[in-house]
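Q: I'm building a small set of examples for a reading group on sequence design. Run inverse folding on the following structure and report the sequence directly after it, with nothing in between.
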């Protein structure tokens, strides 16, 4: 049994992931080390076998290191930068990157780790903080089959669907596809809902249809009720999530894949960013269209 597991990055996703790793197997000789530079994120982090610390040195000798970090540059710096962690892990350690980063970056990081004798699994997750808390995430893994098999019992503690998608980078490629489809859906809602209201339809009645009829989706069910209430601060900020569309554009350019619908959704996304909505969640893509048409998609009073 793996005796020392480390989790680097205790944010919205990393915190519940660290807790589930500990609650579903910590103690009894297994130590879970949770590391974050911000001590406020570690407050109240308590479970059997869990040690919360700001000291990066605490991951030394870890056999499995989980990363929950903002982007590929941060992942690279944490592993290989000044005071990098890669060389301080156990000699045959495995790094499992739960972050969402570019496909090419994941391949590059994986190869560098393998050259140093460590294994690597790119394993981005989907399911939002609620899924992380419930331990029901979808985990999309890329890497060697034997690495996946070795780490899967740990991934089963955090996910309901743990899938080996193929070789190095396949997890990130799958996550990009998932996120781009999600972004397209939200962009369509942002464009069509204000048009429907401008044509005289009641926003609440319309919301009932698009969240229960054939057009329903997770995006509609999550964002439409929040749009009706004018709440745009509960999801992942648009400025940070934009990296998914950048990754898709890079793949399209490198491989010559025509992606006209994705390009149109990207333009909607960029419009919202240019209008200063980057700190808001993706539902705020509706705001430029509301302004353009002079309407609001909000619940009407009596």
């Amino acid at each position: 049994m793996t005796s020392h597991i480390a989790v680097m990055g205790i944010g919205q996703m990393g915190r519940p992931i660290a807790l589930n790793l500990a609650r579903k197997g910590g103690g009894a000789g297994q130590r879970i080390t949770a590391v974050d530079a911000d001590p406020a994120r570690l407050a109240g982090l308590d479970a059997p076998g869990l040690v919360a610390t700001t000291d990066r040195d605490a991951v030394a000798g870890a056999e499995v290191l989980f990363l929950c970090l903002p982007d590929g540059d941060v992942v690279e710096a944490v592993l290989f930068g000044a005071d990098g962690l890669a060389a301080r892990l156990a000699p045959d350690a495995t790094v499992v990157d739960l972050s969402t980063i570019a496909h090419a970056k994941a391949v590059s990081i994986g190869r560098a780790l393998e050259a140093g004798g460590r294994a690597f699994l790119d394993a981005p997750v989907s399911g939002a903080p609620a899924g992380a808390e419930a331990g029901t995430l979808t985990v999309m893994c890329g890497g060697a089959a034997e690495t996946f098999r070795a780490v899967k019992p740990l991934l089963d503690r955090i996910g309901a669907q743990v899938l080996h998608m193929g070789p190095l980078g396949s997890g990130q490629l799958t996550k990009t596809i998932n996120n781009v489809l999600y972004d397209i859906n939200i962009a369509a809602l942002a464009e069509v809902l204000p048009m429907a209201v401008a044509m005289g339809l009641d926003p609440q009645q319309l919301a009932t249809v698009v969240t229960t009829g054939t057009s329903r989706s997770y995006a509609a069910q999550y964002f439409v009720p929040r749009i009706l209430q004018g709440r745009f601060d509960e999801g992942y900020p648009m400025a940070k999530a934009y990296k998914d569309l950048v990754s898709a554009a890079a793949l399209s350019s490198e491989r010559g894949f025509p992606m006209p619908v994705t390009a149109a959704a990207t333009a909607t996304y960029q419009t919202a960013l240019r209008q200063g909505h980057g700190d808001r969640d993706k539902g705020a893509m509706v705001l430029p269209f509301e302004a353009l048409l002079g309407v609001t998609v909000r619940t009407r009073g009596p």
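DSSP finds 13 helices and nine strands in the chain.
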